[in-house]
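Hello,

Our lab assistant flagged a job as stuck in the queue for most of the afternoon. It eventually completed. Since we weren't sure the result was trustworthy after the delay, we are filing this so someone can double-check. Below is the sequence as submitted and the structure that was eventually returned. Let us know if re-running is recommended.
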Amino acid sequence: MEVWDFERPPAAAEPDVSAVLRALANATRLQVFRRLAAGYGSPVLIADDLGVPVATVRRHLEALARVGLVRTAGDGELYELGRQAVRILNATLVYSLSGGVMPARSGPAPAPSVPTPPDACTVCDNGDFVRGVLDDLGSALNEARDYHQRIQQMSSQVLTAHEAERKRIARELHDDTAQALTSILVRLRLLERSSHDGEVLRNVVELRDLTSGALDSVRRMAMDLRPASLDDLGLVPALETYAENFANNWPVKIALEADGLRRRLPRDVELVLYRVAQEALTNIAKHASATTARVQLGRKRNQVTLVVQDDGRGFEMDRVQRTQGTGLGLFGMQERLALVGGDLQVESTAGHGTSITARVPLAAPRRQA
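-- returned structure --
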């Protein structure tokens, strides 16, 4: 079985220095490392100086320890710098930024051609250099965070405009096109009753059937673009209506289960989950060759989960990415979920169906005094 977790992609092997820099690419962790280099060995002292919980400091210290920058000292309640890893980091930065290139190394020790600074490199001759590099790293981290926020805002604006346009088109289809077709249908029925010519009657009946089919298509298109039940009644009634219409148009039996949703979710969360379910069911109809599908929607505490499963033929993720480009709409689902802080997981086995799971965290309800 192939599992693709959009939130946690498989980690690739990378050099030690790269792992160290990635570990430092966190603003709070960088401050913890600075305090440790300045002689703050106790997590309690570091937490008090930064104004964060002790558990947060311990978590960042453990992350730094995994790459060798930090190690426990004494009875385990104190921490100190991992001198070997710090020396390698400092030597690499000094050598590479001065115009050289670090030679390949197979062990933890630096190459002989690289000068090894003293152990306490963060508080000795090269201390200013290392602190400058850490300052640059912190600035780059803040810029990257701001850039990521701007990208998310732009994506949110694009999707919001997209949904607004869908809503406008759905309203025009319902109010204008559907009403016009309804009027034509009524006039055709009146003409059918008043005509006595057999040839004319056959043509009128044919036109009436074509108009009736076009009216059904327009109504179905308007509902797919923006279902009124989603805005008026909420996510569960909208999914029930969509599943019923889906089963009438495709040879797939739909089972819908909802649990723990006693009150409505935030509107943006309802819209995102509805679009994810819609895209997943469309994929099932077009690609899976499935006979049954199950949609499970549930809320536990401050998280809502949507699961869409089918008994179709499944697929190989790598092949889908190469042949379909957009990955059966999976990236579109993830893009929508990211706007509400959610994540997407896809599990598929060739010949044994596919399962798509979307999780969205919800804000904890405020307690009233």
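-- support follow-up --
The delay was a queue issue, not a problem with the job. The result is valid. Confidence is low (pLDDT under 50) at residues 6-15, 99-126, 365-369. The chain has twelve helices and eight strands.
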